[in-house]
Amino acid sequence: MSEFLLELNDVWRRFPSGDEEVAVLTSVSLQIRAGEMLAIMGASGSGKSTLMNILGALDQASQGNYRVAGREVSHLSKDELATLRREHFGFIFQRYHLLPHLSALDNVAMPAVYAGMPLGERRERASYLLARLGLAGKELFRPSQLSGGQQQRVSIARALMNGGAIILADEPTGALDSHSGAEVMRILKELHAAGHTIIIVTHDPAIAAQTERVIEIRDGAILHDHQTTSAAVLPTYQEPPAVRRSGVATWARFMEAFKMALLAMLSNRLRTLLTMLGIIIGITSVVSIIAIGEGARNYVLNDIRSIGTNTITVYRGKDWSDDKASSIRTLVAGDLKALAEESYVDSLTPETNTTLRIRYRNIDTNATVSGVGESFVQVRGKNLIEGTGFSADHIRQQEQVVLIDQNTRRKLFADGAAIGKVILIGTVPAMVIGVIEVKEGGFGNSSSLQMWLPYTTAGSRLFGRSYFDSLVVRVREGQPTALAEQALTQLLQQRHGQKDFFTHNIDEILKTVENTSRTLTLLLTLIAVISLVVGGIGVMNIMLVSVTERTREIGIRMAVGARQSDVLQQFLTEAVLVCLVGGLIGVLLSYAISVLFSLFVQKWQMQLSLTAILLAFLCSSLIGVLFGYLPARNAARLNPIDALARE
Length: 647
Fold this sequence. Notes:
The chain is α/β, with parallel strands linked by helices. The protein is 47% helix and 21% strand. The protein has a 6-stranded mixed beta sheet with strand order 6-7-8-3-9-10, sandwiched between helices. Helix 3 (104-115) runs parallel beside helix 5 (148-160) and helix 5 (148-160) packs parallel to helix 6 (178-193). It is rod-shaped, with a radius of gyration of 44 Å.
């Protein structure tokens, strides 16, 4: 174990200058014992600040050896160097290097955040240190509210937060008046008396004369190293209790990163809003398009369902374009009975349609007249708003009864009273027994007049035929429609002796519409995602600017012990937070758009789903991580001494 706390052997520090290198320190060898109070003195450009930076592990030697308590520094990783600074050193800078948006208490407590000290303990210790340095009652003051001397005392308190066994003071009185400078020197002497190793970098011989040892440096080399007489020590300083580490470091660092992200956003509100704008537009577009697509899909599907879901329709002919279909007369009542006995059939109805003149009193008009079975309302999913549907007796006895739709009731009956009234259909009178709701939609003409009679009545009294235009079969719940369609086709083909019909499965239409709408929604969503990517690029650009603007802050945090991961986490948190807030605003705007949409579009509504909202926040987070990583990585890779030197 070395007797020296700090030991430099043949240390050189070179910096690139064009194609060459300039040596700022040349073959420096120096040993410092624990508890010493010494001054490194020299003119500007002599290399004294570079020497201090190497001593404080803010910079590393180009050549030579540097040991701290016997530990070789050149072999340490960046995170190990951060730990070394955090646990051994406390820095006092000429320009104080306090974060302007933090209070005195938070500035002092910052090193303990990275040391993993619990919140309560670090606040208690920071308050104690401020009080011991004469700043009681100023804990919540920001640096701009404090004098230069007070700011320097805050800086000293910060240096002591994690113990500060070695205090490195770079021109600690250079920016102060004589009274404040004397006060700072008094505090440093008290710290020396309490056992701290004090290293002061100065160009002022009067300051150097107050230390026990003076090291003069010129042109990067030690010129003199001699003992002197220190000023009297004031014994009033009491050493604070030792820092106690805990296992909450990760959470503490995250909360610090979150707090700093909020402060950064609030301190640059306009820039933050402009940064969010791309994210807001993108999220609003994605959520709104998904909601519009979902609403449109449900509207179309409900429209299709209004003509009967889970149904298979059998038509005459080979296909829709079969010219011989009108001459085929094989769909008859016997097919109804055969199909009704099948296990997969829930209900069925025949349909035969034509257009006829209808009359009630002095009103004469055209209407679509259909012959249907007793299960027509159930099969087609119609809604009876008044009266009753057909019964088996109506079918069997060929009764002259009729169901009409709302349009027909509106056309024929001014007072709306239709039940029990007799309408003349062609030359056949029929009594109204029920009114069927007209469903607004794109399938069928909702403004046409429609009426339905028992197929036996229509066939014998109106159409003069016993065969049907089509059969509509509702498949029993739980039965696969594809298999039912196959069995139905096989049965009718056996009955007819040939396949003189074709089937149309409503469920296939539903599936096609669903797939098509999903494809369109996905396409539109991908287009909207482009705006998210553009917004993400905006976030990255602003974060890169933010890293440049806050380089000195990054250097301060690294000087007090922040690891690369801490800096990375801070800037990533800020990027994600910006995107999440932008995502939240985007979702709220989507809700506002849906409300406005409902005021102008009555037929169908946007449908905001939890899935779309969660997807929006997931997209926001991913964009924050993806586009925030490069700026955060750049921040984490900064050299602390370069960062501190940036104004």
